């Protein structure tokens, strides 16, 4: 007697999972993460000073440590995820760790001035882009050498640790500049405008993203004139992303020089003036 073997549940949906259907969840996740991150960094100094009676230096240093840790830990989490625990358990653990990082903050006071820390952050942003440009140039040479010129998805024999200097510089840039900028707005604005001052960083980030989009479109348009391959081509092995990163490093350098001019024109901050009077 022959018996037919049939699945208990027929698989009527043969379409692969993922794709555009997952985009709303990814966008929502990133949006909430950014709201939490920028909302915390913009208001935490005010909260620590008013609720915990912390000095500005100590509160700022706590945020520096938190920002540096949250920017460097993802690369460690990526290595652990790919090597040991898998992606999804690591995402769950990372979400919990991120929440704890927003609650548990620590360190010693910093005595670097606000404008000095912003300048240091801008210098780290320059070195971050330089590092990225160098690594991309090396990656492209390896890709061509290994025969991936026409295969943008080909995986080159190159360790992910090459990205570590860029990620470290990027984290230090945000730790120094973003926190110091929030402190600058809060300390320099009148107390009656504390809510406005805490939101200016978000406004700056919005404008920066729009400018970044315009720069990318401009580079794409100009670099492919005359039928040339765009610097930001879909095929990263035929494009020149290293040139693009060098261009961004140049813009960061010009921005640093402009910052030095504005810093000198602005004069001393209120906290610096108060420290002079206190010492006298």
What's the layout of helices and strands?
Elements: H1 23-51, H2 56-85, H3 87-103, H4 114-145, H5 164-188, H6 194-223, H7 241-266, H8 270-279
Helix pairs in contact: 1-2, 1-5, 1-6, 2-3, 2-5, 4-5, 4-7, 5-6
Keywords:
MFS_trans_sf; 280 residues; membrane; transmembrane; mainly alpha; disordered N terminus; transmembrane helix; 8 helices; single chain; 0% strand
Compute the CA-based radius of gyration.
Answer: 24 Å
Number of helices: 8
- N- to C-terminal distance: 104 Å
**In what range is the share of β-strand residues?**
under 5%
Spatial shape: globular
Number of strands: 0
Mean pLDDT: 78
Helix content: over 70%
Transmembrane segments: 63-81, 88-106, 118-135, 200-223, 243-261
GO cellular component, one term: membrane
Family: Belongs to the major facilitator superfamily. Proton-dependent oligopeptide transporter (POT/PTR) (TC 2.A.17) family.
Pfam families: PTR2
